[in-house]
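dude i think i finally got it to work??
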Amino acid sequence: MIYKKGRYYMAKFMWQGKVIRKSTRATDRKLARAIEGKIRSELARGNFGILEMRLAPTLGEFLKREFLPYTKARFQATPKTRDYYSFGAKSLLDSDLAKLRLDEITDQHAGQYTVRLLGHLKPTTVNCGLRTLRRALSLAVEWGKLDRRPKINLAKGERQRERVLTEDEAARYIAACPQSWKDAATLVLGEAMRPGEAYCLRWENVLLNGQGGLIQIAQGKSKAARRLLPMVPAVYRMLKARHEAQGSPAEGWVFPTGSRSGHLEESTGKIQHARALRLSGVKPFEPYCLRHTALTRLAESGCDTFTLARIAGHSSITITQRYCHPQADAIERAFQKVSGGQELVTDGGHPNKLLAEGVAPEVTTSLADSMG
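look at this
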């Protein structure tokens, strides 16, 4: 028989009076059935070695031989992601985890790794290693080196990038920003772009039509990151002024500098960001919070999750869902649409009040009675 255990199908059958159970390493039922037949055939030929369990490689071996070559090739176009995993892999290789086989690693081992490093490293740095471990174990499962990936918890205390600025904070912050970060921050806040996308924006990907315009994100972390965004008025005015100041070029960097890359870089942006925080008096936040603020405002304006995912350049709406928090008004509008636009009113008061305060016990009782 064939049955699923975790991600893979298992083969179970009788052979010479013994029950044989073996993972087929297949996620497709038909393929698993074919592999089961192959196992039976090999046994009939006397190849009993097919039943022997192959030892999983150590984490260190897997990182050196397979994971690092994979990330080097896979993220060639996104060097920051490649360097992130390289740094995390080096941290893991220098730890006791490197000596463990892949199938021996548990969250307890990851916790010991965290405790050893938190004494002299920030949680963000420790989590780089833990995220690399997660990705490596996931690939090991995908490549048949491991049956399932253990749950690996991250270290607590990492600086979050999910703060939402108020309109007053955003205005004071932008006013205090030095150039070129001021224009880049305006772009991130107005278009919900990733800061890295703003740094390397080129005039070839900007269309100014006299009244508005479009911005093309030509490359990014995934296929979903490549998208077309309409300009909000503040961004259009900023780009038009910058375009004219540069002599109306047809190509080149929107934020040119004398750096090695030729454009505004993250290091410079962070320095100017820190200066803007000091001058504005706004409570400190990460530059990425500008994008988070823009996406949160779009979600609050009624933008649906799928559209918001396209705007953000997310490859999965699971990431986008954290920006969507339906309020009482939104829930009421949804029910009004399916009720022909009629206002929904209950004996207990306006539905907004009920949704905001929670359904009262007597209302719950009456609902239960009406349902028998």
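The first strand starts at residue 2 and ends at 5.
im so relieved honestly
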